[in-house]
């Protein structure tokens, strides 16, 4: 049996982010950390994108940065500067490799390739983990493992952000190098919010087809949409698909909680995927800092599942209701949000950084009767359909 002060399950975005935040604390307090992952050598290809006022920490692993975004709906195209923000895209494999190399220098951190099959909190508040290889004991376990099937029986409001992306190369680039096509809604919007997302890198372009859908769809649907989109942009044979990525991110009113006070869910499992947008990276960074601050202050970690501000949770659940009930109207609403407000304010709002007065101005630019109706429903029946 192997005993540690802390254990992180999963060496992905949230697990390695937390480990990096813990590094100095471990050294200063002579605490030990074990990171458990089924495989430290292979990693699912994934691109993480976000906007930040300080891109410098990600300079070494950035695929590219941009200072403009575009929103398109019908005949309307919005080209929007995003200063003081920069839109950043990083390669998940590069992020993982960099963090593992940095953490390997810390003598308080160990690694174990294993798969956890059982989690149990003991009476003395220690946590016992049973793996396929060993059994582990820790004061706290930070668990990033998340199975989308956990939400299968949830009866509240939820959508899935499901996407498939092609990395393509061509003699003629796809898109403006200085601009991200953040949401191109010029596709069918009947049963689900649908858009194309285009990141033009220096030597290739990522084009994704994304749905905010209440049912997980077959991959072939995404391939057909991508093929039609690219056929409209290129002559046959004028591009090559060099790589692909896909994913399913929960957008849910479900309140992520742990059954055990010393097993702390992190990342998507800890509610870091924003319910109204699916963006995760920024919120995973905040959650990690919040956990470390609590440890430094010797505060209990019970209830430290990320939930942000109560009012932003309320906004997210209200917006999610509208997306769920009115997918055919949602593209126009999102376009209107960007068209009638400074982009900086919209991005601050999506990052949970606006003041109440700024939020009032943003919401006053949108269909007030519709938002009022679903805000009231959320007050009366929180999270329920």
UniProtKB/TrEMBL annotation:
Superkingdom: Bacteria
Protein name, UniProt field: Lycopene cyclase
List the source organism.
Answer: Rhinopithecimicrobium faecis
